[in-house]
């Protein structure tokens, strides 16, 4: 790039707005020339960039000064709902129960542990949640982030690993927010005082500086750590022998393809050190037995372009001849099905290497609508005149090889399987929600040996007593509806949505309210645990941790997140509706509101993401209560580009289909407004990172639909970034967005939507915009939102930014700081809605 000319600032801009000098820089690709007036802001250390940031922060504070009282009120409301002194449920790992304590007035959690009573001790110890860390007999503090963070404005724990005997701890910290971690080895056999500098004697002298991650071998004798290159790409794995200088470490693997990231860890059975390397579309697993840490890593299955796979190991104990164990390799892959399948390989049959597709298929996803769907054969006994890739994503999928619980589901995606000594769990997605199934290990062995579908049972979290959250039974097998399609009947009168007992009209939003929740297995680090832990949450129900016994069906609540201040989940409603996008695709939208406040022409907070196959699943938020209690309708369009309805949903919102993400969000917004559920004059949209790109795009596409836009760390100068291979993440991102550097069609497509380059002219009506960003963000560089901000202000649009100088991509660290931040953001949103 070269500097072309300088231009004087436009003096017609509002006097309080900092004037950004225009200094045009050429960007020329594929015969297209773009003159960028604000590229000079990329010089992070220059005085004028720093001065500009300071001036923008001053403007933000001035413009929001009148909201200080509301911010304090929102902070107090949030704080009043939180039990500040609390603890997690202890988790057993080897010879200890591990748990975390939080204490009133302290920013960070304290990590503690207690020894198990004996080898059969699988009942978590009763620990007083109000007690001081280390106060109980046998309890010890292994890491106090409050003491460790002394003297740092930013502090984040970047991982923690322990040797099998519990003596050695490997931990990483980030004090800059740039996601480069310094890892240390600590001897937990030495006493650790709770005060700054306490680690001097307990920590060994070797430090792994600025790395991406690290893990121990089970005996704690070796550390394998991940190198980051100049573009912040995890690119190599190194071996370190504990007690020797870091300078003598050996590189054991280096990934030469810049599209691939690497990571390292232990297999679940701790028999192998595992290197995983992958791009957005291709993965490979390399292994080395833990008893030979200085050996050579070898691929389990050599990489194949556009094929993703993972592998784990287990066995069916005593299920073989004469009571012998049956060793198993469990392979999760999409070589034959784009929505993945799980194959279980009997390792008695032959020695490695193995092939993708080998073994017994336990579960297979739906190929409908997928780009590679036509490669999947038609299940036996079925005929279809329509190719799989042309089938509707929401068409019910039937495959005789699948377990009974997977038959007839919509948007079926397989997400993984876990085999423990006493149980097997299956994770999958259907109807836009995560699901879990479980079965006793003995039944799995019987089904495997008999060659029949496994007898999984879906795990359903308990309903609230006397509440509305029952599962709808009126599913339309053709469309996948649950009777929840948003009312859009043009000839009817859209004036009343308040007549039914659940706060929405039975006529205008017909059907039973669908249960919305996120569920997943978690807290099961031990292979030998006799019972399975699972957690679930919803928009209206705080998180719960349960323990389930597959052998007896007993479901025991271990902990429910405490929400103080008279909170009752029955005071709130959640519902999934479906709207029709402009191309005919049906888009699920989650709605949440306070039950006793009519949902009619309501102020609306609508948020989305839609990228990287990441699903925006239901979750509880204490901060959200302050919005709902003021009559705000909370909406989440599950737009394409995410993974809510499997791989096809993702494929239809990436690369040259990316505009579907923006259109889905706008169409959902307009549908809710047309149905008189939401008022466009009081609608605020929110999204962060790739969701910030979504915010910039919808502001350009449909400015009339939004009164305000909150864009957090927004990826709004996407084309400039994706054209520069030297920037962090760029090359790896080509699989997600396309490669505009070498492909003119991708360049033209991205240029047609990237927000910074497509802002409307000065006289256009445009929503108010509030931006958050950080100078240390390595995922979305601060320069993108700063340039976007300057361009909007130059046009006279009402745009301000709060720019953190210490934080990273995830914002500030420390829970009280984070509560202040979300209260700041919510106060701005409420002000736009006229509720300040």
UniProtKB/TrEMBL annotation:
Domain Peptidase S9 prolyl oligopeptidase catalytic: 618-834
Keywords: Hydrolase, Protease, Serine protease
Compositionally skewed regions (Basic and acidic residues) per UniProt: 505-515
Source domain of life: Bacteria
PROSITE patterns noted in UniProt: PRO_ENDOPEP_SER
Region (Disordered): 492-524
The UniProt record lists the keyword Mitochondrion: no
Domain Peptidase S9A N-terminal: 22-312
InterPro entries: AB_hydrolase_fold, Pept_S9_AS, Pept_S9A_N, Peptidase_S9_cat, Peptidase_S9A, Serine_Peptidase_S9A
Pfam families associated with the record: Peptidase_S9, Peptidase_S9_N
Assigned protein family: Belongs to the peptidase S9A family.
Protein's name in the database: S9 family peptidase
């Amino acid at each position: 790039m070269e500097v072309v000319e300088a231009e004087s600032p436009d003096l017609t801009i509002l006097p309080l707005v900092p004037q950004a000098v225009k200094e045009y820089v050429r960007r020329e690709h594929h015969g297209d020339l773009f003159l960028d007036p604000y590229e000079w802001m990329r010089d992070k250390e220059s005085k004028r960039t720093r001065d500009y940031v300071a001036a923008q922060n001053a403007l933000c504070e001035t413009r929001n000064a009148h909201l200080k009282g509301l911010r304090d009120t929102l902070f107090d409301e949030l704080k009043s709902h939180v039990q500040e002194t609390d603890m997690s449920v202890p988790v057993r790992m080897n010879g200890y129960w591990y748990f975390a304590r939080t204490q009133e007035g302290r920013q960070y959690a304290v990590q503690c542990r207690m020894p198990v009573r004996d080898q059969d001790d699988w009942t978590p110890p009763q620990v007083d949640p109000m007690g001081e860390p280390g106060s109980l007999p046998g309890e010890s503090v292994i890491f106090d982030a409050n003491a460790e963070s002394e003297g740092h404005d930013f502090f984040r724990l970047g991982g923690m690993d322990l040797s099998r005997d519990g003596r050695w701890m490997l931990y990483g910290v980030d004090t800059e927010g740039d996601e480069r971690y310094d890892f240390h080895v600590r001897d937990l056999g030495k006493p650790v005082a709770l005060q700054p500098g306490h680690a001097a004697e307990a920590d060994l002298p070797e430090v792994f500086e600025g790395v991406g991650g690290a893990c121990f071998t089970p005996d704690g004798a070796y550390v394998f750590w991940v190198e980051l290159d100049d573009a912040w790409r995890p690119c190599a794995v190194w071996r370190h022998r504990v007690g020797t200088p870091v300078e003598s470490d050996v590189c054991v693997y280096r990934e030469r393809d810049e599209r691939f990231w690497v990571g390292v860890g232990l297999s679940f059975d701790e028999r192998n050190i595992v290197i995983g390397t992958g791009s957005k579309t291709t993965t490979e697993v390399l292994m080395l037995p833990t008893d030979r840490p200085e050996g050579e890593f070898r691929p389990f299955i050599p990489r194949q372009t556009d094929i993703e796979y993972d592998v784990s190991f287990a066995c069916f104990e005593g299920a073989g001849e004469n009571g012998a164990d049956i060793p198993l390799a469990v392979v999760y892959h999409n070589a034959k099905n784009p929505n993945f399948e799980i194959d279980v390989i009997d390792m008695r049959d032959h020695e490695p290497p193995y092939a993708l597709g080998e073994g017994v298929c336990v579960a297979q996803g739906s190929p409908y609508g997928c780009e590679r769907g036509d490669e999947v054969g038609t299940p036996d006994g079925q005929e279809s005149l329509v190719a799989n890739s042309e089938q509707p994503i929401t068409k019910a999928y039937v495959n005789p090889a699948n377990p009974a619980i997977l038959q007839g589901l919509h948007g079926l995606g397989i997400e993984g399987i876990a085999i423990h000594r006493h149980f097997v769990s299956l994770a999958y997605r259907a109807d836009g929600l995560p699901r879990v199934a479980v079965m006793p290990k003995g039944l799995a062995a019987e089904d495997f040996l008999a060659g029949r579908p496994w007898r999984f049972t879906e795990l359903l979290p308990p309903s609230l007593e006397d509440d509305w959250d029952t599962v709808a039974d009126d599913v339309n097998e053709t469309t996948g509806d649950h009777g929840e399609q948003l009312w859009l009947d043009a000839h009817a009168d859209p004036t009343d949505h308040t007549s039914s007992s659940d706060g929405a009209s039975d006529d205008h939003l017909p059907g039973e309210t669908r249960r919305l929740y996120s569920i997943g297995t978690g807290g099961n680090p031990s292979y030998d645990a006799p019972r399975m832990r699972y957690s679930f949450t919803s928009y209206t129900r705080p998180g719960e941790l349960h323990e389930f016994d597959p052998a007896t069906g007993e479901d025991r609540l271990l902990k429910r997140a405490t929400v103080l201040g008279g909170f009752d989940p029955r005071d709130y409603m959640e519902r999934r509706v479906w709207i029709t996008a402009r191309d005919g695709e049906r888009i699920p939208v989650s709605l949440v509101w306070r039950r006793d406040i009519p949902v009619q022409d309501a102020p609306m907070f609508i948020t989305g993401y839609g990228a990287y196959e990441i699903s925006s699943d239901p979750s509880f938020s204490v901060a959200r209560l302050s919005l709902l209690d003021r009559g705000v309708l909370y909406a989440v369009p599950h737009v394409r580009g995410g993974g809510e309805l499997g791989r096809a949903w993702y494929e239809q919102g990436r690369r040259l289909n990316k505009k579907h993400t923006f259109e889905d969000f706008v169409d959902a917004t307009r549908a809710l407004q047309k149905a008189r559920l939401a008022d466009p004059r009081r609608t605020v949209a929110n999204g962060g990172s790739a969701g910030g790109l979504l915010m910039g795009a919808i502001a350009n596409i449909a400015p009339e639909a939004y009164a305000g836009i909150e864009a957090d760390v927004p990826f709004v100068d996407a084309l400039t970034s994706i054209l520069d291979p030297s920037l962090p993440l760029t090359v790896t991102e080509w699989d997600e967005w396309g490669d505009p550097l070498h492909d003119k069609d991708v360049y033209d497509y991205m240029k047609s939507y990237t927000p910074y380059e497509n802002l409307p002219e000065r006289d256009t009506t445009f929503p108010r915009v509030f931006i958050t960003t950080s100078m240390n963000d390595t995922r979305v560089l601060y320069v993108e939102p700063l340039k976007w901000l300057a361009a909007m202000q130059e046009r006279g649009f009402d745009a301000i930014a709060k720019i953190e100088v210490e934080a990273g991509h995830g914002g500030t660290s420390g829970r009280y700081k984070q509560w202040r931040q979300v209260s700041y953001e919510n106060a701005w949103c409420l002000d736009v809605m006229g509720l300040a």
